[in-house]
Amino acid sequence: MKLHRFASVFFLSTIVWTTAGCTMMEEQATPRVAQKNIASPEQVNTSLKKATTDSNNQQAIELEKQTKRVTLGQTKTYDLSSLLSKHRVSIDPQYFYQNQIFYFDLQENKSVIYTYDTKRQHNKIVHATKNAIPMMTGTGEFLLWVETEQPTKTGVKWSIRQLRITTNQVTTLDTGESRFDTSPPRIDVTSTRVSWITQEATAQKTVSTLKSYSLKTGKITPLQSFILKTGKVQDGLFTYEHRDSDDGVTLYTSHFNNGKNVRVLETLDGAYKKEMSGLIDFSRSGTYFALGTEGDAIFQPIGLDEKTLNYSASSAQTLINGIQFLSNTQIVFREGINQLMYADLKAKTVAPLTDFEELVSVPLLQDGKLTYSITNGKKSTLHVVKLLPSD
């Protein structure tokens, strides 16, 4: 099962940045070739229509939308209004460890990582750097983040940093430089490992390498590399995004063949592979893939004799993201930027987890607790739900 994912969301063909109370969409950078191969709205709609059809070409079952809010467990609420008013921070909780909530403050010439102790209601600096921090996450006693330096004529230098929370020891796991419009790595985690994709680009090719870092041994292992040859005609494979979970690694890739570009969602072990454009977010459990798109949340069975399930958002333009599997068949996701929803695939229902708010962060799942924040005007509150046992 997925442990959790970082709270600031930037995804796929469309990126959703959620920082300091605003959301922005922009196209994902692809090395030198993307602008020639971006799918048209008609192609995206066709691809999403395929995604809502199962392998027997039967239309997906629409989940029943309920109006009554669900309760997933005992909830503690913390008023962070006075704290956040002093910092230009993302409202999203980036990581939760025991009683500590980690977040970062993006200042003009530096980035600062803070931790807020919910028991003592005390805030302190954990780490400061002159570099930018585009994302942060964690697993167990480890806090992990990416640092990027100022862009140069050749590219953007980056490093992956790790803090052992119990000892305050900071180490560097990996370094590199993003060139030719490639992006710095994005970290994902499970209960036992950390993974990321590096992209080494030259004028002739881009090599994407999926790496795995074992929390037990401290060893980094390259799992697989993918090569995209560039030039007049592009050929090969380019990786946009990956998701890691205890159930395996999933990749969102572009397959180029004589210049033709097909986007594919596939598992590293080859058990699942489908053409798919227009993804906003995706995640998996042992039995389902959950796909977030513009206007729909799609749930496709893995190795089950079941039909695809679909939830239609309140608007066809609403983005579905922040997907978290609470169990194989119970999922929390964010509809737009205003509300968290809860899907029960066994009952075939979707119900609101929060009210419709001005701004709701994507949820964070860790150690049996679901954490999210809500902003209305100048009031910001953090909500920590101790989840009831699930299937």
SSE layout:
Blueprint: E1 14-19, E2 22-27, H1 41-51, E3 61-62, E4 64-65, E5 73-79, H2 81-84, E6 95-97, E7 100-106, E8 111-117, E9 122-129, E10 132-139, E11 142-148, E12 156-164, E13 169-178, E14 188-189, E15 193-201, E16 205-214, E17 220-229, E18 235-245, E19 248-257, E20 260-267, E21 273-275, E22 281-284, E23 288-292, E24 296-301, E25 309-312, E26 320-325, E27 330-335, E28 339-344, E29 349-352, E30 359-360, E31 364-366, E32 369-376, E33 379-387
Parallel strand pairs: 3-25, 4-29
Antiparallel strand pairs: 1-2, 5-33, 6-7, 7-8, 8-9, 10-11, 11-12, 12-13, 14-15, 15-16, 16-17, 17-18, 18-19, 19-20, 20-21, 22-23, 23-24, 24-25, 26-27, 27-28, 28-29, 30-32, 31-32, 32-33
Explain what this protein looks like in three dimensions.
The structure is a single chain. With 391 residues, this protein is mainly beta. 4% of the residues lie in helices and 53% in strands. The protein has helices at residues 41-51, 81-84; strands at residues 14-19, 22-27, 61-62, 64-65, 73-79, 95-97, 100-106, 111-117, 122-129, 132-139, 142-148, 156-164, 169-178, 188-189, 193-201, 205-214, 220-229, 235-245, 248-257, 260-267, 273-275, 281-284, 288-292, 296-301, 309-312, 320-325, 330-335, 339-344, 349-352, 359-360, 364-366, 369-376, 379-387. The strands form seven sheets. Strands 14-15-16-17-18-19-20-21 form an eight-stranded antiparallel β-sheet, with no helix packed on it. Strands 3-25-24-23-22 form a five-stranded mixed β-sheet, with no helix packed on it. A five-stranded mixed β-sheet has the order 4-29-28-27-26, with no helix packed on it. It is globular, with a radius of gyration of 20 Å. It starts with 13 loop residues before the first strand and ends with a strand. The relative contact order is 0.18.
